[in-house]
Amino acid sequence: MEACPAEARIFGPLEELLAAATKTIQDNPGSYVPHVYGAKEAGGTSILYLADKPFEELGLKSGLPDHPMPTLTWAILSKIPNYVFWGGSLLAGIWWITNRRKEVQAYEHALWKMEEERRRDGNNHRDE
Length: 128
Known about the structure:
Blueprint: E1 2-3, E2 10-11, H1 14-27, H2 70-77, H3 80-127
Antiparallel strand pairs: 1-2
């Protein structure tokens, strides 16, 4: 574990840093808030803090969940392929039905015109 001369910042493996922070709090009761900020917040951060006053007063957020924040993002992003697939399938189905209705309508209109022409031609032959 390495430290700056005043030991305001120390560097090292997480387990050693947590042990040192816990020991510092235990050795100096009343001098520090009895909590190592960053040990569990948001699944654990890369920086741990000790403070002599509440962390909220230092501008650090309280009430963060113990699980990593990317798990929330993954919970949403993992569902997107399903929505894209089913949404795309639904839209393709609606497009097909709409175009099929137009085709059927055009076909029925063509049949109706042919029937009208036959009737006209039939009536023209009777008049002759």
